[in-house]
Amino acid sequence: MKRKNWRGALLRPQFAALAAVLLINWLLFPGFFDITLQDGRLFGSLIDVLNRGAPVAILAIGMTAVIATKGVDLSVGAVMAIAGAVAAVLVTGGASAIVAVGAALLVGLLCGLWNGILVTYLEIQPIIATLVLMVAGRGLAQLVTEGSIVTFSDPVLIFIGTGSLFGMPMPIVIAAVLTLLATLIVRKTALGLLIEAVGVNRSAARFAGISSGLLLVLVYTFAGFCAATSGLIVAGDIRGADANNAGLWLELDAILAVVIGGTSLLGGRFSIPMSVVGALIIQAMNTGILISGFSPEFNLVVKSGVIILILIMQAPITSQWLRARTSERKAQ
Amino acid sequence: MNRALRPLLATTAIFVLAYLAAIIQFPAMLSTRVLGNFLTDNAFLGIAAVGMTFVIISGGIDLSVGAVIGFTTVLNAVLIMWLGLHPLFAFAISLTVAAAFGAVMGAAIHYLKVPSFIVTLAGMFLARGGASVLSPDSIGIKHEVYTTISKSYVLLPGGGRLTVIAMIMLVVFVLGMILAHRTRFGSYVYALGGSEVSAGLMGVPVARTTILIYTLSAFLAGLAGIVFSLYTSAGYSLSALGVELDAIAAVVIGGTLLTGGYGFIAGTFIGVMLQGLVQTYIVFDGSLSSWWTKIVIGGLLFLFILLQRLVFSAAAPRRKVFWKS
Fold it and tell me: At what angle do helices A191-200 and A170-188 cross, to 10 degrees?
């Protein structure tokens, strides 16, 4: 993949869409772009969009890698709930915050590893393999919390969800660091290329000497890790682990973010930063709907409209029609 | 013995064994009352699962069924309680709306060439959102037709009750079996699941069949919604949350191959009953909490996927490709 210049990258339709949504928000709510500094932390609607969008953005990072291999991970929402539950139960049981965070991330890695083994070695379709954990995962999370919402007051865990570093809320910092690291790792090494190769044609990639099995397991494990990180943020934000509602339907938001970011669902073409932009577009829409006074449920209708629009734009039938029209014009 | 029937037999055997084990522990579970409740409590799931079976046999997936059920309950409630329509008229409208919704999704899947799970995901958002826009709150339905239907039942020997909604489910299963195994449309569905390209080359009308499959699935989800509103006497936009997953689980447990081209409607019935058994067992036990249902169903799902892998890798002369590209 050749490096594009910055101006070209900024002219992508996703940035135009983000700008349009933010502009509409500004028209609805003139103070939208106001940012103030209070007690060493930035406040404002724009910061709020970034902050609220961080969990989905983090999920989208892992999901991008999975979708790039022609897979999908439906279990991330459930893994978020499990990770939050594990951290909350450990910390209320007297364990130190470091142990709790470490255990939660480890559980996320294990969940991802399980998905990866199902997809790679048992050769189950990804959508079904991850469905198992999606169905059972919430049950497991409830098993960990014993059905109640476990609240905690551990300062470190709360800091992950609500604290701030250099004036930026912690979720934004974590999401930014993860985005940067993941992008650097896939683009400055051959890893991104290998993932794309597996996504285009798994057998061909194996014959070309890529250990595609190991790579697939790695990708699902990474998605599990991202989900656990996101679960920690959500748990820290509400100061508790809610096994039923933590991360509910967020897997769908994450997939939507990846699709908006232009990653092909047929595998082989992906961009982690663009998926994060996709997550921000979704959150900017959410915030816009909330501040304009519509009921939050209205969100779903708007989201489905966005998906339909993207599908029509990406469809081969549309590009054929466009090509036919341009060639007609040239003929005249 | 026909090798193709093996997964169906395995499912049936597991159901019978599980039921026997449950009876040994709780002898009261062997009664027509419990069986009648099995059917009534899972009627909406069963009806939706029949549609899902057709979709999965054709190689697709329909994530919108739970949302369509929720939407139909709200639409019914709005038509009956707010507009004062007769319930039967409201049912006709709801079924038409649901079927049209499915037809549009089917057309989008075929003509836009996108994976079915993305289109039906958009459909799920749209149906849930639409239901919440109609009414975010639960609407109770009070109408004499509703009370008559929910009060009427056939008394089974042993005191069990075969309710109207249970009968609707059984009729849907019988009709589904006839449609899948005895009609041209049924063969088209199996052919599409085997390979869309070969099916097209053999003269299967791919576009029409795809649209009809999703129309059927959404129509049955609409019917499931009506049954659900009869069952609860209410319309609520968040009802039947996650039923699509239960339906998929029932289909898979019933032995239908997720890659398409192979499966049974009868197996889905056993899958639904097995889920009902898990729930009933947990109620009988009393000490197990409700979240065990999810874990056990997840475990069963895994077990059956594994079973399919083993049976089919042993049966196929060469390695069957489980990745549908």
Answer: 80
What's the pLDDT score for residue B315? 53
Contact assignment for A142 to B324 by CB distance below 8 Å: no
Q: Is B148:B88 a contact under the CB 8 Å cutoff?
A: no
Describe the crossing of helices B291-315 and A126-145 by its angle, rounded to 10 degrees: 150
Residue type, B13: A
Alpha helices in chain A (DSSP H): 6-10, 13-28, 45-68, 76-92, 97-120, 126-145, 155-162, 170-188, 191-200, 202-207, 212-238, 250-260, 272-291, 298-314, 316-331
- Asked if residue B298 lies in contact with residue A133, where contact means CB atoms within 8 angstroms, the answer is yes
Query: CB atoms < 10 A from the CB of B176, how many?
Result: 24
Q: Do A297 and B61 touch (CB under 8 A)?
A: no
Residues in chain A, total? 332
Integer Rg of chain B from CA? 20
Contact A42, A36 (CB under 8 A): yes
Rounded to a whole number, what is the largest CA-CA distance in chain B?
62
Q: Which residues pair with B155 in a beta bridge?
A: B161
* 3-state secondary structure (DSSP) of residue A248: coil
Residue A133: closest C-alpha in chain B: B298
A 6-65 → B contacts, CB under 8 A: none
Tell me the ipTM for this assembly. 0.74
Relative orientation angle of helices B43-57 and B265-285, to the nearest 10 degrees: 140
H/E/C letters for each residue in B269-304?
A: HHHHHHHHHHHHHHHHHCCCCCHHHHHHHHHHHHHH
Q: Please state which CATH class domain B3-315 belongs to.
A: mainly alpha
Q: The domain A42-293: what is its CATH number? A: 1.10.3470
Q: Which tokens in the block code for residue B306? A: 């594994």
What whole-number distance in Å separates Cα of residue B74 and Cα of residue B232?
A: 12
Asked if the Cβ–Cβ distance from A140 to B118 is below 8 Å, we say no
DSSP annotation of B202 reads T
Structure tokens at A289: 């709907």
Residue B191 has pLDDT above 80, yes or no: yes
Report the residue from A122, A133, A139 with minimal CB separation from B292. Answer: A139
State how far the Cα of A124 lies from the Cα of A101, in Å rounded to an integer.
Answer: 31
Decide: pTM greater than 0.90: no
A309 → chain B, closest CA residue: B122
Testing the interface with B: which of A135, A282, A301 to mutate, by most B Cβ within 10 A? A135
Domain segments of chain B: what residues? Answer: 3-315
Which residues of chain B lie closer than 8 angstroms to A243, CB-CB?
Answer: 291
Nearest to B114 among A136, A243, A311 (CB): A311
pLDDT at B169: 93
How high is the pLDDT of residue B320? Answer: 42
Answer yes or no: do B136 and A297 touch at CB < 8 A. Answer: yes
Residues in chain A predicted with pLDDT less than 70, given as ranges, are: 1-11, 314, 330-332
Longest Cα–Cα distance in chain A: 78
Chain B within 8 Å of A252 (Cβ-Cβ)?
yes
CB neighbours (10 Å) of residue B205? Answer: 13
B295 contacts in chain A (CB < 8 Å): 136, 139-140, 143
Contact between residue A301 and residue A39 where contact means Cβ atoms under 8 Å apart: no
Place of tokens 């939660």: A104
